[in-house]
Each structure stands twice: as C-alpha cells, then as structure tokens.
User: Fold these one by one.
Assistant:
Number 1:
Amino acid sequence: MNGRIRFISVIIILLALVVSVRLYFIQVVYGESFVSDAQRQNVNENTVLYNRGNIYFQSQAGENVPAAISRSGFTIAINPQIIKNSEKVYKSLSQILVLDKEEFLAKVLKKNDVYEKIAIHLNTETADKIKALNIYGLTISTDKLRFYPGGKLAAHAVGFVAYKENELAGRYGLERYYEDVLKRDPSKAYNNFFADFFSNVKGSLGDSPQEEGDIITSIEPSVQLFIENELESVRQKWDSDEAGGIIIDPISGEITAMAWNPSFDLNDFKKGDVKFFGNPLVEGRYEMGSIVKPLTMAAGLDSNTVTATTTYYDAGFLFLNNKRISNYDDKGRGTVNMQEVLNQSLNTGAAFVALKMGNEKFSEYMKSFGVGTETGIDLPNEGRGLIKNLDSTREIEMATSAYGQGIAFTPIATVRALSVLANGGTLITPHIAKKIEFQNGLSKKISFAPGKQVIKKETSDEITRMLVNVVDKALRGGTAKIPGYSVAAKTGTAQMTEEGKIGGYIEGKYLHSFFGYFPAYKPKFLVFLFHTYPKNVKYASETLTDPFLNITKFLINYYQIPPDRPEN
C-alpha cells in the first residue's frame, strides 16, 4: 500500500515538473516569438477592462436616461519600432480615420517607444476595416471607456473621470462625489461564492460607502437642455461673462436642472479650459443684490417688526456711519409701505427693516437661512458664503446687507434660502442623486426630512403673497403675469467687485439675478437665474424676465401643471 502511494506521488511530481517546464518555455524562451505573432495578428484583446457604475438622468416619464456609462470600443496603436513605411501606413489609415498627418508622423518617429495611441473610441465596424488592412506593427485593443451620451448636457453637475498620476477616478461633479459607489474593484470579480453569500447584509443595503452601484439623478434631460439653451441665448444677447441657473423642487430639495455657461464637452474635456471644470453654482460666491430683499422682509414679518402695510418715509437715500446709500435711481418716493419696497425694489426700504430689527436679530435671521454655511449638496468643493458684515455693529453694513450688497452667497445656498419662502418656512437639503441601484439588485432612495423651521408658515404665506403682487402689479407693469397661475418672483441687480472680494465695486459692472416659484402657494418648482457683467444694460428685469417666463411656461406645459387661480 505504501509503495502504491509513493508511486502515485512520484507521478504527480513528475507531471507538475513537466507543466512547469512547459510554462517556462512558453513564457520565457518563446515569449518574444509569441509577441511578434501577436503583432502580426493585429488584434490584442484586452481582458482587464475598465469598468465603472453608471449615472442616469431621469425623464419626466420616469425612464432612466444614460448620463455617464462605460462603453465598449477599440483603441488603435502603433509600435514605432516596427513601422517602416510611415507614409504608406498613414495613407492607408487616413482612408478610414481622420488623422493629423504631422501628429501621426511624429509618433512614428518615437523609436524608443513601443506603443503610441493614434485613435480611441472606435466602433466595431471601423475597427474591422482597420484590421483588414493587415498592417504590421499596428494593434487593435478592446477596452471600456467612460462615455457621456449627453456631451455637454449638465457637464458641471455630472463631472468626469480622469487620470491623476496613475489613478483613474472621478475628478469633478457626481463622478467625484459618488466615487465610492461608482468605482469598481477588479478583485471582486474573483470573489468566491461563499464570500458573496456571507457578505455584510448592512452593506448590501447601501450603508457601506464601499457598496458598488449606479446613480439615478433627479435631473430631467429635456428641462436641462431647455435651461442650457436659455442661458446660451442670454449670454449671446447681452455679451455676459457667464450665466447660471438652477431649477429645484423647493419642498423636497430635488434638483431638476443645474446649468452653467460657458460649458464643455465631457467626452472631449482635454480641449476645454481647466477653469471651466469646477461648478460655480456650488463653489462660487456672489453678491446677489435685490433678491435678498425678500429674505430681509420675511425676517421683518416673522419677528413682528413690520407688516406689509407698515410705512416709512423714503427720501431716496440714507447717511449711515458717514456713508451714503441710495435707491437704484437715487429717487425718493415719499411715504411708502413694505409691499412697495418689494414692488419698486427700494434699498432704503430694506435698510429700514433691518435697522428697525436691530443688528442682533437681523443677523440671527439671515444666518438661519443658511447663507453662510454649506447646504450639504451632493457635489464636491462646496463653498461657504462671505457674511462677515452680518457680525458688524455698524449700521452701514447692516443696511447694505439688507439689500444684498457687502455679503456674498453661493448660488446653491441662495436657492436653499429662497426655498424657505416657498415651502412653508423650512430649510431643505438640495441634492441631485435620487436613488442608488446596487449591483446586488437592491436600491436605496435618497431623500431628506425637512430641516429646521426658519420662519413660521404664516410668514411664508405672507411673503409669498407679497411676491405674487410683485409679478401681478410691478414686473413690467403687471404685463408679465401668466394667466391662470400665481407666480412669486423678484429680480436683483448688484454691483460687482473683483472675484472673491467684498467691496471696491467696479463702475458699470453688474450681476443680474432672478428667482421665482410657482404655483406660488403649492410650488412645484423654484427657478433661479443669474449672469455677470451684461453689456449696455443695467437692470435684471430687462435681461432675465423673458428667460424666466420662457422656462416657467415650458415647465407648466411639460409637466401639465394645472392652473391654480381663475384667469383675470
């Protein structure tokens, strides 16, 4: 028996030795020969494919629309050490591919290299045509690459994947923020059945940051495209430096659209300017001007400092701490009430409210709107507002803050603050991701409970009524109202400073802003628009009223929002 065991053991050892020797000859002795043959075969099948979770927009009908996917394709490369007749090779390839001749010939001259890419993202048909050329020294590799079907659509929100040193990962937008969910660990492909079976159940429910899945967003592609086209038109018409817009559900915090112009193509971001890659709607800080007045007025109403009918004498200007502030036109209106302060956008009226409240109370209310803190939006590099002037004990800083100068907010923080007026008085968490669909088939809905109550519901109702009056009576003399719909809105025009600074305003350089929500008393959407340094025009009502109305009417029709009041 022992002899038989010894015999079997010897046989096993001999077989192992034979296999080892064979592998040695394959890998070492004949390795170069096999490489040469592979070069002649023209096709190099890459078995370690880049993979990553997908990002989806969601249509109004509830369908997932790809925003970022991993797409199979082909990469064409040459070995400069093997390519002999570069002119001939170029001529053959140029019949199929669009190639820059000088660039191609320069790559062929890199005789110290063995691999130079000349084309990527090719489809199967094109790759087959190139393969049929049977060019010695040319390889066709299969791969999976990050692809963005929308191109420029929501580029700043989606972000992109890129190399940093040797690491390929999300660098901007949702791609970066949800990196732990979107990235794929190649080693997991070799996990055995039992490891998968006994994996942490809690992790499978999405509580683990390492859980892999796809991101479903609240961005509606048709709405996103519409607002992007409107912003493009605004910039072209007024020669603005930049323009941005956000459409949000002021109750849930879900963002339907987020757009910035100038933009870039996510599939060709290397040709873009790196300064455009960040998201100014989340990172930038701006003095917003008169759209801050409704926040000031809401604070005054909520603290019982004023009512809509409270009056003051408007001389057109004020002297505070030896500084002069004035209305936009430097004109006085005499005795006016708080409704007219909003209707006519009077700086002196906003200052009156703040001064009557007192610094401590006014500052407390403004900070409660969250303008100086991060909103918690699911995008990277969120900035914080510059609100140092709210802590000043001087009247001049309090007065200018009341009408949106001397303090600067991020656009997303501005939207969150203004949503308080629309939603009954609560602080929301703006967010883009709506759901995570995990690879194990489970999913996790992303939602946030209402935040703290900032103002009373009665205050929210009253400031909404006052802002509806602005549209019905004041905006373009009442001609801008939409029959059958209550719309609450306010414009803003602010002097601009050098980027990132407070004070030291540049003559003739303005930021125009506009916000509105509808139906006013049960709002579906809040729309926020702004652009910087429009040329040969001074007021936001001239530049942003039409874009706001266009977007509002589109949303009403697209979502079939029913009228909320009789037509007048």
Number 2:
Amino acid sequence: MMHHRKSTRRPGGWSRRRRLLTTLPIFIVLFGILVTVSTLTDVQWHDDATGRTITPSTPNTAVAFANPDDVPLPTLGTYEVRDRYVTIDVTRASTGEVQTLNVHVREPVDAGNGLPGVVFLHGAGYGTCDNSFSDMAKAMGTAGIVTAVVDKPAWSTIDINRDYPASADAYDAVIDYIRGLDAVDDGKVGIYATSEGTWISSYLLQDDPDVAFQILLSPMVFTPRESLAFFVAQDFTLAGAHGGYQSFVRRVFNIDAALFGLTNLDIRTLTPEAYAIPTFVAYGSRDVMTAQVDGLHTILDMCERAGNPDVVIRSYRGGNHVLRPGDLTALGTPYAGNYVNDLIDWIGGTLAGLDPICEQVAGAPIRQSSAVPTLRAQRVATIYGVVLHILTLVLLIASAAVALVGATRRIRQGLRRKEPVFGFSHGFGRSLALLVMATGLTLLLFVAAMGRIIMSVVNLAWGGTPAHDPGIMYWSWPVAQVVCALVVWEWSGVLSRLIEVASARGILRVPPRKGAVREIVTGEQPVLASRRLGRVMFWLAGTAMFAVLLVFAFWGLFSYAEPLVY
C-alpha cells in the first residue's frame, strides 16, 4: 500500500516552501530598510551618570555674614511701600518695533537715600507689571529696596522666537531709570531673573557689567536646546514612559530650527561674564524643569572662571519651578521655606561688603535624574523628516480620496452591485484592508501614548506627581514594535503572492507572454484587480502605509540597540 505525501502546492501555484523562500528575502529587505532609517536618523546623546544627588552639609538655608561693626542691614517689614507707575518706550533693534512698557515701581516710604534697587526679569509667557513678582517686590520694598516690575518686552515675538538681546536692552533701560532715582544708589542696582529670564540676564550682564548683583531663580544655565531637551527627557522618565520614547526627544531636539527661521535654540549664554557679579541661586526640590546638579556645578565653575567668590546656592524643600509649594496653578501661595528672608539677608550683607559665614550650598538635597545632553542641529535629518512627513500626509489624503470615490460609486450602484468597484482578486483586497487597519491602529496607539505622555509631562512641570501606573505610556512601545514587525512580514507575504500571480499570468517572463499585459490592463486576467480603480487604490494605499512605517522608523521604532553616546 502506497502512501502519498499531501501536496502543499496550490493548483497552478507555488509550494509553501517556494512562497516562504520568496517572502523571507523580501521581509529582510523591507525590515532592513526600516532598521537602517531608524539607525541613520538616531542621534548621539551625551551620556553621563544619572540619578545623581547632592546633599548639602546643612538643611539650614539661612544666609549669615560676619558683622563686627553692627552695620545696619535690611529687615522685612521695616517700611511702608508706595506704588507708582511709569512708562518706557523700548525699541527692538532688529526690526525697529517700539513697545511701550508699563513699569510698576515700589518705593519704601521715608527710607532716605542711597537705597538699593532691583529690576525683575520675566520667565516664559507674557507677564505684566501687575501679575508678576508682586509679593516679592512688595516684600523687598518693606526692607528698604526700590523695585521695578515691567511688562515683559515681547514686541511681535512669541516664546519660540523671543529676541533675547533686544529684551536685555529693554530691561537695561529700566535699570537705567531706577539708577536715576534720587533715593537710589546707582551702584547698588541688581536684577532678579527667573527661568527664561536667566538667558536674558546673560546678555544683559555682558552689555552692562555695572549691575551690582543678581538673583537667579530656577536658572536654565544651558542653551535652550539643551535645557529643553533635558527637561523633556527627564520628565519622560519620571512619567514612566518606555525608554524607547526617548528616541522622540533625541530627534525633536536635534532639529535644525534655523530652516524655519528660529535661531534661539543654540544661543550661547554660558559665559564667565554672566557670573562675574555676586550671585544668589535658588532651586526648588520639586522643580522638574531645570538641571539642578549640572547647573550647580556649571555655575560654580563659571563663577570661578570669572574670579567671583560671591556665590550662594540654596535649595528649598517643596518648591516648584517658581519656588512655591504645590503646583504652578495654585496662585497666591507663599514662597517655599525661608526664601524671602534669606534673599533679603543676602542682598543686605552683600551690598555692605560683609564676609559670609554660612555654607555656600545649603538646603534640601539637589537631585537630577537625567543627564544634560550635548546636542547640535542636524540639517540633513531635518530636511528628510519634513519631506517624509509631508509626503506621507499627501499619500494618506490621496488614499482617502480614492477610497471615497469607491464608496461613492458603490452607493450609486445601489444594493445590487452590478459590477465591482475595485475588483480585487486573489484576496489582495482583504490583505490590503488588514494591513491598513493594523498600520492605522498602530498609528492611533502611538498618538494615544504620546498624548498621555505629554499630559503627564505637563502635569509634572506644573508641580504634579507621576502616575502610579504608566500603563499605555510603557507597554505601547514594545507592542507597537511587535505589531509593526508583523505588518512588515504580512506585506512581504502580499508582495510574494503578487509575484506568484504575476508569474502565473506570464508577466514576469522575458519577454512577457504575448497578450499578458493587455489582459492585466483590461482586467481579463487580473493580477491585483480587474478594475483600474482597484489597482490605483492598492498601490496608493500600500505606498501610504509603507510611508507610515518609514515615519515610525524615523522616530526610532525600528531601533533595537542603545543609541550611540560619546
């Protein structure tokens, strides 16, 4: 009795083995292209030890000076404060734009002459003279310090294209005004800069070295590109996002923004001149926007290079980015710890020329969970990314348009469907639908995950706490990697089957079988579809879906190795 092996060959088709041997090299080529794109678009990321903590020798933030001659020093609550307003016109040199700034001046009543002065420099946004620094400016006034809070000089700019040199000139005009007041000692006027304002202060001090002192609250220290990349990378980690999503951060912050007219990302404000005067630095322990460990070391290094020993660094427990407890939406909350008293004591002792007898660094532990990256603009990758995303969008829109045309024709035909709209053959229609659905769902998964990550980062930046369970922020990355690999394999199978059918139709012969091309075009012996609309739909949608995979590859989804570091 003879036993026959069951055939694996379709009638008139290939065996399973032949289909596998055709599918596999196609998969290797397609997957290799995507891995190569992920590798070539990856960027180097400065990699230092992370999770670093500086624990000051004392948690006591008090600032003390040796005062053997009992020189009288400013004290909170000593004077009543008088408010008045003036206006100053400032010109943006690069454009000639003029902005009229309101200046809120607070003066201690009956405090005599020779008083110190402070001008406040805004952080990001559009602060005015009345909604910013009010409590600090008034507190300083009660201690005998003349203060000036000004509308933020912005002209026609927004946060992403702020004119820092022009802003520095505008603030310096306010400084000159305060210096000119009869009650003010023009050699005792300093600045109070917070967040973005610490970039502006660097320009200001290079142009006006006669500023007497500076208070830096949550200083950014590094370039905008490096500072923002650190902030986002650290908060991605704190939010619990999968490490793969760091590839988004690396690529976003290596963009060549100059191609879009944005030149602020790489401004170099880290110079010894910016730290050549007495400096008070304040951090909050809940501030997740600033690189506090790297910032501390860098500031001390800059002060040393400038020959400036007069630097005090304080870290306040529970303080957020603006040194308030709670989140940034909680308006009207007091400053953390003893910040106001410490600041007044420091200003008084510093301007009196007294010797400090306190620790240079004190307060709560200073932590930093990620390294500050060293980044540079990558023009070629930026151009490629822009072209790829525009092309993908065009392909998706065109695919949707063709699908809409098909749906319209189907509706016109009614329920009887006298003739096929697309006329897909050999199961290519079902395969296309499956691939579009899988790729689209992966795209939606990414959008949902990135939306959740961004919401978590915003929550952290505003003083919130990390989510207990990162959920989709973590598992979406490996799931997407697996699904996309399966999609590439399925595409390889579809292309293999396409070759199989084309071979059976005689189109792949050299020369092609007589009449084969005509039969395919007319739909008599279709390879893909009997209708031209179906063939257009297949190749257009297929190209669009592969373009989406290329977009995934651009953002690092097909990267399976750690990024290069130096």
Number 3:
Amino acid sequence: MAAFWLANLAYRPTVWTVLGTVSVLCSGFGCFFLLTGKWKTSLGWLTLIGLGLWLLNSGKHIFWKDFLKFEDLTIFADPANFETLLHYPLESALAGFLVCVLLFLCKKTFGVDSSCARKGRRLFVSLFSIALGVAGACVAFQNGQQQWMVNIVKGSNVVANLLMSSRIHYVSPAANLASKEHFPTVITTNGDRKEKSDIVLILQESTFNPRRLKGVDPRTLPKLEMVDSPWSTESGALRVHTYGGGTWRSEFSALTGLSSDDFGVLAGTVFYSAVFHLQDSLWSRLKKAGYRIIVVTPFAEGSYNSGKAYRALGADKIIHVTDLGWKGSRRKNIWNIPTGKILEMVRTVLDEKYDRPVAIYALTMKEHGPYPEKENHRLEADESNVGSAALGRVAQYVDRLEQASEDVVKFDRWVQERKRPTVLVRFGDHQPSLGWSGGYRTTQARPEYITDYTLVDNQVKGRERSFPLTDIVFLPSLILQHAGVPLGPFYETTAMMRDLCQGRYQDCPDSRLLKAYQNEIYVNQAIAKWPVLVDSNSWSQLCVIPDVPQYR
C-alpha cells in the first residue's frame, strides 16, 4: 500500500496534488476505521482499493492511451463490461487476486465486538479523519484543479486525477470568429428524393489496413480486397479518435457527426452522458425522413450502456445475433461470431418487407483482440528492430482480417447489384492494440489513429473522389447526401466543413476555421445542449467550487 500511495504523491507533485492525495487517504482510512475498528484492516482495505485503481488506470492506459478519471468509473462499474476482462488472462488473474483479498478483508471486517470506550475512540478518530480529509480535499480541489487541467493528459497520479475530475462539466467550445463567414445557411445537396435509399452502416471491429505497419515486409502480407473493394464508390483513410479500444467513441462520432474529444474529460463516457443531451443525430434525421432504424449487434445491450445509448439516438429495434439463430445468451457478448455471419444476418433483416426505407447499423466482433502470438506464419520483418512476438501477434490479426475479407467483398457486390437503392458504409472503429513498435508507412500525423472506410452507393456508377484523409465525424453527412435525405442545418454545416477542410477535422490546418465551425455547431446551433452544469451525485457538491473552464 505504501508503494502505491507514495508513487502517487511523488509523481509530478504540486502542493495541491499532494494535499489532495493525503486527504483522500485520510478520509478513506476514517471510513474504514469507522466500519472495522481495526487500523490494520483499514489499511488493508486501502491497499485493495489502491491496487484496484492501479489496475483500472493501467488497463485504460494500455488500451486507450489515457489515464483514469472520475467519469470512467461509470464504465468500470457497469457489470456488463466485466466480461471483456475475461479475455485478457493477466488482467483477469490480477482481478481474481483482488477478489480473494476482498473476501479475506470482509471476513476480518465484520463481527467486531468492542467496548464502549473503544467504540468512542473509534468514532472520534474516524470522524476526525473523515472531516480532515474532506476539508483538505476541498481546499486542494478549489486551488489546484485549473493547474491540474493543464497537465491532465500527462498526469498519472490516479488519486489526484479522480479527485480533480470529480466535478467537470461540459462547456461548449466558443470562438471569437463569426462563423457565418465560413458557413452559409444553405448549401447544395442531393435534395429530398422520392425513393430514398436503404442504408447499411457497418462498424468493423479493430479493422485497418495492416500494410501501413512499417517493419512488416509487404510482400508477405495477403491482399485484403475489402480495403480497396472493386465495388466501392469511394474509400480511403479514416481519422478516428481512439486507439486500441473505446469502440463507443467511434460509434458516437459515426452516429452523430461529433467528436468525443470535444467533450473534454467526458470523452470516454459519451455513451453514458453526452448522447442524452444531443439535439440531432444521424438516426433522428433519418427518422424525420421516414426511416426505420434497426441495430444488429453481437454485444449485450448492457455493454458500455449501448442499448440505452442507441435508443436515445433514435434506434427503433435492437436485434442481438442470438435473436437470429446464433447460439448463446442475449445478455452476453458473442465474441467468436464470424464477420460473414454478421453480414448474412444483415442481408436477412434487409430483405424483409418494410413499408418505408430502412437503416441498419451492424457491428462485427471476430477481429477483436486479444491476439495470441502465432508461431507458424508467413509474415516476415523487413527491419531488425521488429520482435518475433510482435510479428506473431500481427500474423494472428492479419489471419482474422483475411478470413473476413472475402465475405465483406461479396457483401459489397450484393449491395451494388441490389434492386433497391442502397448505400453501404463500413468503417474501422480503431486500430488493434498489437504492442507494435515498428512504426507506420504513412506521412499522416498520428498514424495510430487512422483506420479505413468504404462507401458503396448502387445509384452511382464508377468511383467518386475521396480526400487523402477523412475524419469519422463526416460520415453521417456523407451517408445522408448519398441517401438523398435532407441534411438539416447541422449536417449542412458538417458537409460544408468537410469540403472546406478537405475531409479533416482535428487535422484541419486552418485553426480559425475549426474554431468557427465549433462555434457554429456548439454555440449557434447548440447541437449539444446540457440542461445542468453540475453532477448532483458528485461528492464535490460539499465544497464551494469555482467556475471550471472546459478541458481541451
């Protein structure tokens, strides 16, 4: 325990992070001492909590390249998300060890029989520790939060991060530049077609072009036709806003046209928070045009709050793969279902008779990690600094892509030849976490945040131009334009931004343009409107809290 708390105290200390960490330790000890009356047992509980926080913080940093914050606890507290941990042996073993420690401490905690005098001392020490800790935490929070926010991304003091992020509210970005000079009220669109296209949007789990990996001899990689499908209307590199995990962040962008990064410390919890405060989304726009919205998923509805999020965004029906004949429980994530089977189910749902156009959103799963090292494989390294273990993991990953590629291209062809007008968009939600150190074959910035997308529109003959890099936030407006659905003010603005910045959002070289765009959508249009600024459940309501600027 001492090592954990000392490590937190010593990491880039300021007077306020030190005070905050000590205060949390003090109040935590008081709570457990009040419960147990035993100082050793109380320290044991703190040790357990410290190890648990370290596990969560390490896991988030490994998979999502970010550190644990208060809002993340909503994800980790969701029992439906625990199943994912079971697929990672080391993390599962550590979690099991912590459970054993928990049971042991529970045995030591209960059944305490003390005299009245001891109970009196116990009550005094406990309440004094709690009061002192809360007071110190409030002082640290008030005086140190703004300084902490400057270094939030770089900080790994778990305790300070949780304390300082316990009360962060979303504030819309603003700009001093008048946005109207960049965003006129009307732009040219495809208009409102009499026969609107059916829409299929497919999230391809952990999928990107492995030929971007520097260090792998490209001659030994298989040709993955799905990356550059012969049936595509357009395709290209896609900028996403998460790496190695955080699927819901890409879902959020693809279904709304907003970047999760714009929501500051709430970025990792948009499916638990932001979706309930949006004024528009892809699905709500489609429903206004008469569409029926159907989700086909191998995920349980409880996983990362996806069921509630989908319904908040406008989904009419959520179909679990077990509803379509796959063996398993609807309350479980189905990990091993092949991508080809998912696509077959999408065809089945799409071929049903509807009295209106239909939009189907589907997710694949087979490409998800972990990726155990494959010993006998055909891949070769073209650089000596690439280890055999990493190359073996890449080989395992490439095998999964190769298994899916043929089925994906067949589905592209089926869409292209379908009699009903149909628009298909499939995209990779993020790159897999492969532990790769060989770098990338690209000149684009932040290559680890690049996947691929493909659009098939059977009403368009030939290929259309695509930008060298397209941000995922522009997919909804692209879909609406191809489907012939009126865009509305928000997606008109989004489409204009896509053209003005050549498909880029975070990468837009014109910072004034980016600020103007954010001012237009968040301030003028109030696309994300939050009725309350303070989380009523936050402990920090006990403190007198200054105004907190938005974290960017």
Number 4:
Amino acid sequence: MNTDIEIEDFEIGAKDTYRDNPLLKKSGVKVEYTQEQVDEYIKCAKDPVYFAENYVTIVNVDVGLMKFKMWDFQKEMIKVYHENRFSITKCPRQVGKTTTSVAYLLWLTLFSDTQNVAVLANKGSLARDILGKYQLAYENLPMFLQQGVLVWNKGNVELENGSKIIAASTSSSAIRGGAFNLVFLDEFAFVPNNIAEEFFNSVYPVISSGKTTKIIIVSTPNGMNLFYKLWMDAINKKNNYRTFEIHWSMVPGRDEAWKEETIRNTSLRQFQQEFETEFLGSSNTLVSGHKLQSLVYKDPIAVHDLLRIYEYPVKEGVNESKKDHLYCICVDVSEGKNLDCSAFQVIDISTIPYKQVASYNSSSITPILFPTVIYNTARMYNDAYVLVEINNNPQVADSLHSDFEYENLWKVFTGNKQPQQLSSGFARGIQMGLKMSPQVKAIGCSNLKTLIESDKLMINDFDTYSELTTFVQQKNSFKAEDGANDDLVMSLVIFSWVSTQKYFKEIVNHDLRKQIQLENMNQVDDEMLPAPIIEDGLEHDFEIMGGDIWEVANGGDTYAGFIKKLTDRM
C-alpha cells in the first residue's frame, strides 16, 4: 500500500520553468535540497517499486488523478523488469500493464544517467500514448525528484541527466543507428510477423551487444506469431528471456461471476485469448485449431541465404544402410503485390510421413535470381523434383528449363480438356508448371488438411506453422486473413495436390490415399462387431474429386454409391 509521505517540496519561479509549464523544471536550475528530500530521493533511487507506489500518478476513469495503488503482481512485474536483461510478459487486457511499465521507465530515466529508452508499439499512436502517460506522471512528480527538461514533445523527452525516451512504431528503421539502453515493445503480438522479424533481424544484434542493455516485451496473445515463438522458446529455455505471466484472477474483484458476465458480453473465444491469455489461432482455419496447437516447430540446423534447413539430404554412401532419399520442391512465385513473397518447400518423399526438410521465402527476390536459388537447392537435395506455379510469372519455370536445363522439372499435362495432371515428358498440351486453378486449390487444400491432421506430413518450420494459423476460409476457398501471408502454405498446397497424382505415386512407389483409407477402415473395424468379408477378386483404385475420396469401378466410372470424406473423420 501507499504510505502517506508528506515531504515539503521546493518552489521554483516562472523563469525556472520549462517553456512556462509550471509543472516542469528547466535544466540548469540550482536549488537547495533539505536533508529530508535527499533521504527520500535516495530511497526512490534504490527501489523502483517504492518510487512507483509513492510518487507515480495515474488517471482513473472514475476518480481522475490519483496515486498509483499497486497490486502485488504489478510490484513483481517491476522487479522482473529491473532484475533481468531480457523479459517477456504475457498478460490479459485491463491489468494496468502500461501504467506499471511507465512507472519503471520513469524511474529508470530519472535516477540513471544517460539512459536511452525506446518505446515501440504496433502503431506509432499507441507508442505516443504510452509516452503521454509517462509525461503525465512526470508532471505530477514533486520538483525535488524531477530532472531539468531539455526536450519535451509528443515524440520524445530529453532530461538534463542525459537520459532520453522516444516513441515510435515497431519497424526495422525505428531505432536504426541509435544506441539504446532499453527497448520496450508493447503489444508485440499485434505487430505483423514480417515487420516483427525484420525488426529483430536488424535491430536486436545492436541492442543485445551491450552488457546491461534491456529488452522488455509485453503483450496480450494474438495467435501463433513471433511473440508466441519467443514466449515458447523462453518456456523451453531456448532463449534468455525471463517469462512473467499475469492471470485475470490476480486482479482484485475479478471472480467467476465477473468471468461469466464478461463472456456473456463478449464471447468465449475472445475471453480465452484476451483474459485467459491463450495462444489461439484464427477461427475457421484450414487445419483445425486443436491440431495446430499440438504441432511442434523446430529451430533450423542452418540458414543459408534465407533457406532454412531442418535436415540435410540423405545420400548413398554417407550411411550404407540408407539409399539416396527422394525430395521434391514445390514453388509459389510472388505476385509482386504488397508484401507478397516468393516461396518454396523442400519435402522428403522417401517415406511416410513426408517431412518438410527445408523452407524458403523472400519478399525481395527477383524472378531473375529466384531460379538460381531453386536450382542450387534442388541440386543439393539429390536433384530434387521441382514443380513451379506459373500463374503470375512463367519466367521462373522457363529459366529452370531453358537456362539451367534442369532435368527433374515436373511438367503438367492440360490436353483433351481434362484437369491438369502431373507429367514428366513433352507432348502436345504440356506446360512447364502448374496453374493454380480453383480445382487444383480445392484438391490441394483438402489433401493438405488430411496430410497434417493425420500426421502424414511433418511441419518443422515456424514461419510455415505461423501461416497455417492465419490460413482461413473466405467464401468458398481458403486464403491468408488480412495482413497475413500464405506463400509458404500455398507451396504446401501445391505439394498436397502433387501427392494425389498418378505420376507421383509411380515415382515414390506408394499410394498415400490408400494407406489413409486402410487406416480408417481398420479403425472402423476395431470399433465394430465381427462380420463376414467377401472378396470379389477385383483390384480397386481411388481418385480425389474436389477433395473427396471416390472408389473407381472396374469400368473406370466413378462409383457414386461409395464416398468417404476423410476431412470429416479427422
């Protein structure tokens, strides 16, 4: 609780104020401190919690200006900030996280010389709002605790002890070139993934190079993004971040009755994400949310020119018990719009489950250079089979064929007004890659769902995993939700379509669909009473039409009496 500390403050004349603001002292003002003021100053300088409890002023919606009455978890939150170089806090809405953070930033800039602090948020306006709360608390400090002010505006504050604090949106250029002692990242889960990653890649090495520099990350969860990865890596001791979690029940007055009322006025899903702080993906995702939460990503064993490698190619002679593994590369070429990326996935197709062994995406690679990246990767992975999407730019596929003369480039047959079919040869109706039609996408999406949910395709790459959490149904198709990317997922959609093709089965010498069908039939058999089985002596085949599995009769016509949607079972 706040102690009622009453220490006589000194007054300053109008000429000693900062730009005629009677609440701010300008730099260079000479004052005489009483012994009582000196003692209190020392107490505040030693203990940020003591300072926050007794001298920080906040605005309460009901009361107006009032002293900051701290709850226990807020005191602990400040201690975590103070005692750790790297901290990450997961918290619900409306728990005073901003006020608590402002109190610590105020203490740091007041009682430590030459501290350079950056306050960053997903929007510049939000960062400036945080700085505004800092300024409000500063103006309501007694004069004997204030530093003289050199700069005071909506974007930055500079004090005579050399400490500075700026507010900006989170981006790679926000603090580039600066030397910062502390970077505070607010609502980091709401920073678009591409921007968040660019920020860390460009700025983090500079920040972390010092011995005392701090990074404080605070956010409410917002799906499986970089904030989620940093949090989970911290939980699993893969990074040096100290985790701090706040639960809604820590706030006095919040009980089960409050919970029920909040759910009634919002929704269960919103409550789970914003108050239970669960990492929920988007709703209506292609892959079920339950399955997405169970997926486990890995750190790449190597990164080479944006190619994230999770397994090196298995080659004959390296291990005599193993033969060369088969690999395929499915390529999604950028449309050249906004932050659209060119991407590809490298899949080990030697055995089931198939495995994602490498992944690549870039928003800056040009169609001229992209074929070189694909070619080098394909050669490394045992001359992998390559299929390129050619809707927007056939140049990539054409270059692989003509310039590199790459032999394992898959073609697609489009003749006789039939659906596109995977091919290897040259004939009339052959094109150098795959056109992503609604039919191809429907089959690919349906099969991708089946592959992942039945554990027949193992995903290792976090970026791919993150895209899956925002790959949602929109009208009669699936695509990335607004502000998200789906280039890596679409590469997997292409692969999933490939895995249904007859030519693919000839290459890998197995039929995945029959295996899944057999597993499901065995499961049904286990759940049913014994029954006689009559063998007709005929071989059966299956084909995918619109994502459904159909049995093909002896005459070649689709037998309409037998259909099973695998996606409904899984």
